[in-house]
Amino acid sequence: MASKELFTIPVPPIKSHQGGSIVCTSPAPQVYVLTWSSPPDNRLTPAFNTALITALDAIEFGHPPGVVVTTSAISKFYSNGLDLQLALSTPGFFENSLYPLFRRFLTYPMPTVAMINGHGFAGGFMLAMHHDYRVFTGAKGYVCVNELEFGAPLLPPMSSIFRIKAAPHVYRDMVLEARRYDAKAALGAGLVDAIGEMDAVLKLIQERGLAKKGSTGAYGILKTEMYRESVALLDAKGKEATSPAEMQAAEKKRKAEGAERFKQWKETQSDKAKL
Asked: Which of 33, 41, 196, 241 is paired with 78 by a 20 to 30 Å CA distance?
């Protein structure tokens, strides 16, 4: 399928990440495909996030309304999520880089489709969930929220999108079991809308008439109201925002208080045994 290349946004190298690019092509009228490549696994670094927001700006303000499709040039990974060490060591990463990216997709003024053609783990899956539609290629890969496996908290702006878009039992299994979903399981759970390659994406766009949905100027406004819980959490700044350190400190405090209660209870049991 021939595609016209519209522009390329570079992803500058930073620290342990070599950088890459985001290429915009148009395989059909008013269909804008953003294909990213940031080896080895498309991590959501500050540089990547800025480049992707720039690409979305270039489409909105430089081209007629249509549909945005995202996918990866790296067949194994749609996105492997955050570089957690880099994220935690970068001041303001969540409030000033990651959450604005999620919000941009969530309230984008035209339909968005994530074509997941490899693993979408943690933040990578969250990014896909902030799209309006998802198509899983089915050839390889899983989507999952695996914070449980590496001991990281799931912050409110991250979890809210799953509360809104996933069924309660799916949300439970996803978070508390770190369940992995292949294409078939994801479709059955309602996490994706179709299985297939670009032809399935174009079919979804055509059948739902998505290319014209952004033409009235109301699309992004409607989504802002639909998802206002997530929007408010993504917009929170300063004291209104919850940081990983705050969640971990609260958990440390809870454990200390619980251990003290248990110690006191054990002492009462010991006293009773002496009577």
From this structure: 241
C-alpha dihedral sign at 97, 70, 72, 143: positive
Q: Which pTM was predicted?
A: 0.92
155 three-class SS: coil
Q: pLDDT, tens digit, for every residue of 95-114? A: 999 999 999 999 999 999 99
Q: DSSP of 18-78, one letter per residue? A: --EEEEEEEEETTEEEEEEE-TTTT---HHHHHHHHHHHHHHHHHS-S-EEEEEESSTTEE
Q: Which residues, at least 6 apart from 129, have a Cβ–Cβ distance to it below 8 Å? A: 161, 162, 165, 191
- 102 vs 123: CA distance, rounded Å: 10
Distance, in Å, from the CA atom of 126 to the CA atom of 106, rounded to the nearest integer, reads 11
Which residues fall within 8 angstroms of residue 115, CB to CB, at 6 or more apart?
A: 33, 69, 70, 71, 135, 137, 197, 198, 201
CA distance readout (Å), 265 to 52, 179, 186, 272, 275: 55, 37, 46, 11, 16
**Cα 233 to Cα 245: distance, rounded to the nearest angstrom:** 17
The sign of the torsion formed by the CA atoms of 92, 125, 213, 62 equals positive
Q: Is pLDDT of 237 > 70? A: yes
